Amino acid sequence: MSGPQSTINTLTRQYLTFHLENELYAVDVRNVREVLEVPRITRIPRMPEFMKGVINLRGSVVPVIDLRLKLELSTAEETESTSIIILEVFHNGQELQVGAFVDSVDEVIEIDEASIEPAPKFSTQINADFINGIGKMDEEFVIILNTLKVFSETELGILSAANDETPQAE
Fold first, then answer.
1. How far is CA 51 from CA 7, 15, 136, 169, in A?
2. Alpha carbons within 13 A on the beta-carbon side of 89
3. How many CB atoms lie within 10 A of CB 60?
4. C-beta atoms surrounding 63 within 10 Å
5. How far apart are CA 170 and CA 143, in angstroms?
6. What secondary structure does DSSP assign to 89-117, as a single string?
7. pLDDT, tens only, 42-92
């Protein structure tokens, strides 16, 4: 048999997986710049609660958010496993780097796009707009976040302004 019916194209994407509370989350690796151990974070006054502050990343000011608080989950104590994922997001045609404070980073996995279910329509603990879909890794579900929708336009403006701030000298 020949023709389009005999060819099966499966598109897989790579995702960086991490934990928040006891759930497994993932972001597309194309949006990940790097993963860091938690450095010193400089707090900026009058920022939203989810904004932890800014870090100095090789001379660049990078705002850091607590992804737990942004997703309206409970707060947690920092541990040895706590990491910051440096994400690239776009705002007004400008690339912004944003650090996402997570409980732990696991691994890069491949998920077949055909196996990703759409975000549930029922009420979930996190805003369904933030979710690209639900994947499956072995017997565990993976909540795939949409990094473009995690932040509102107002929040992106705040993060953009934080990129322009200069941390105080120590």
1. 48, 24, 30, 20
2. 26
3. 11
4. 24
5. 39
6. EEETTEEEEEEEEESEEEEEEEEEGGGPB
7. 998 888 889 999 999 999 999 999 999 988 899 888 999 999 999 998 877
